[in-house]
Amino acid sequence: MKQLFLIRHGRAFAEEPGQLDLHRTLTEEGEQQVKEVVEQLCEHHIKPDLILCSPATRAMQTASLLAVGLGVLKEKIKSNSYLYEESLGQLIEIVRAIPNHCSTVFVVAHNPTLSWFATYLNNNQAIDLSTCGVFAVQFDVDSWDAITNTEVKGRVLLD
Description:
Layout: E1 2-8, H1 28-43, E2 50-53, H2 57-70, E3 77-79, H3 88-96, E4 104-109, H4 113-121, E5 134-139, E6 152-158
Parallel strand pairs: 1-4, 2-3, 2-4
Antiparallel strand pairs: 1-5, 5-6
Helix pairs in contact: 1-2
C-alpha cells in the first residue's frame, strides 16, 4: 500500500517588480494555512517517509513547516527542479520513481499541475487545489512504478 499526498504550497506574496517567481515567499496567512494542515495530519497520525518539493521558496517553506510540525527530519525533504515547472507527464514519472521503501510521500508543488494530477487520480473528476490544499490517495500496489488512476483505493481532499 502506498499513500501519496499532493500539497499545494501556502499563500505567497505577489511577485514584486524585478523579483523572480521562484523567490516568492509565504505570507503570514500562508504560514497559518500550513499550520492548519499540520494539525489535520497530526490528528490522523500521518508522517511522510519522504517529502518531494519544488525548489521555489514558497514550496520549500511549506515543506519545512510541514516537516517541523510533523516531527520529520528536514533531510527527508528532497528538492526536485522538475516540480517547479512540471508537466503532468513529468510529475507522474517523478512519482513512479519514488523509492519503494517509502510508503507515505508528500509532493509539495504548484498549480495547475497538482490539480491536473489530482483530477487524473480522481477518475478525471475535476479537482482544483486552493493554496495549501491537500489531495491524498492510497494505491493498492507494492511499487510506485505500478501506480495508475485505476489502482487508487481511497481519496481525500482537504481544502
